Amino acid sequence: MKTVINKWKLPAVMLGPFLILIFLFFFVPVILTGILAFTNMDSAMNWEFNRLLNFEKLFSDPDISLILRNTLLYVLFTLCINVFFGLTLALLTTYFMKKEQFSLLFRTIWMLPRMTPPVIYALLWIWFFDPSEYGLLNGIRSLFGLPPVNIIGTEPMLIIILANGVIGASFGMIIFSSAIKSIPEDLFYAANIDGAPHWSIIKDIIMPAIRWPFMFVTLWQLLSLLTSYEYILLITNGGPLNESEVLALYSYHKAFQSFEFGYGAAISLVLVVIALVCTLILWKLFKVKDMIGPSRID
Amino acid sequence: METAGKSVPTIPGNTFLYQLKRKLPYIISYGILAVTTLPVIFMYLWLIIQSFASNMKYGLIPEGFSLENWEFLWTNIVYKGAELPSIWTATWNSLFFAGMLTVLEVLIGVMAGYALSRLTFPGREQILKITMILHAFPSIALLIATFYILNFMSLYDSLFGVVLVKTALQIPMTTWIIKGFFDDVSWDLEWAGLIDGCSRIKVWFRIVLPQVKPGIASVSIFSFLSGWSEFLLLYTFIVSNENVTLASFLQRLTSDPNMVNYGVLSAISLFYLIPVLVFFIFTQKSLMKANVGGVKKV
User: Fold this and answer.
1) Residue B285: how many other CB atoms lie within 10 Å
2) Among A97, A184, A252, B150, which one has the highest count of C-beta atoms within 10 angstroms of its own C-beta?
3) For the whole model, what pTM was predicted?
4) Domains contained in chain B, CATH given
5) B140 vs A contacts (CB less than 8 Å)
6) Nearest to residue A117, comparing CAs of B145, B47, B247?
7) What is the pLDDT of residues B58-85, one digit of tens each?
């Protein structure tokens, strides 16, 4: 009995805090979200179950079609920018740029938005498109004698897609760059000697090598885009009049602005279920068995 | 490109057009990079220029140098008729939040990472699987339930409570990265220590831990920066003025469209950005590596 305790003591102590945190802030919240979704809890924090009422409300919500449309547009277009622009950046900085310092400089610049605190990053975009001529866009327009435009007001979706796209592009850029760099140099030499054009080098050497990273980035970004709303909250806060509201942000607004915790949780639950399916697909596709090798001391 | 001269054979490599054709892809790629990178550079350039300028023309051209934008460092800003807390309160809170997060995250991550990398115990594989799945799980969808839990533990509106939440959200990724560092340490080192009569804990502390110091350093920097930049959790779970952090401080000033004063905003942003820039310049390479391990931002 004593040896059993001794054998378990070390792992238990080492893993204890980790497991407690995960239990408290992952498992309990997942279950709690599942339960809260069937109550009409508000700021009074009373537990009152109302069966499927929240979901019925969700389907008959007058704003829901606009929000779903926004979510679809946001996820689809941002994903495209993330993946294709990220790929372009990676190709340009690793394949076309021969000078390592230059490509490092460009990659560093593109990493800046990712490292910048979200509040500052949002401010930069707000300034860029400021409706007065203090903003860069309207400043340049006034140089040519054009009247100022209020793009954040008229095309809020465009701004949030661009802002999120730039952040996500750097993620794709890093992963694709390291994938391209791991291709053996000999392949490029051989292709050059054979006089292969750039296009065919990209198509036949680079693309096959980054097939898996490509899929990984796509799925990963899909997952994060579905549930992320930090930059939208900061730049447009869903406005004007829900025009840039997405589902995840709607859930947040319902919970923390109108204090309908139950309804908010119901919307979250929908997202959590979608996210879980995505995670499982990710997990199935990118299962890395050998990372879980057994311990070799016993 | 046949010339009029009869006996001089033209080598294709020498003609201007051929050179141009060969260089064209490079010219185009540098062009694309320059054009797309320019707005990003402008944004950060503006931040610096605006904060020291008394007035701006065309968005980016300063008219006169002044330090009045930096007055927030010694006088409190009056906003909506009420005085905002001192910037130093916010700075200390941000430092406390980021520091506390780093300590907790590294401590728990190192312990759990070692256990998962080196110890044998039942349930190890399951925990590893869960860690990987949580790594991709969109925790942001669980904010409502997290709010309930914090409220229940009376940790709502407490910086420490938010530190716990943030630690929990990041710990799967951190542990995974640290586990990777431990995996690279040779088993012989550990065996040698055990044969010399050290206990398992002593071996861990004296022999294995020094081996992963660089890894721990980069994880620390990374978690400090993410704590320093955190916005959404603090914005949601902190209400009182004495617990305000730099992110919420700046957000409060940005969010009101009626009194946007870009001079002050850019000065505060620059002040808030200093640690990020310092870390970024000095640790750019190790950060890039840690990023490949996976970042959950979009």
Assistant:
1) 10
2) A252
3) 0.85
4) 12-66 (no CATH), 86-292 (1.10.3720.10)
5) 227-230, 248
6) B247
7) 767 777 777 777 877 777 777 666 677 8
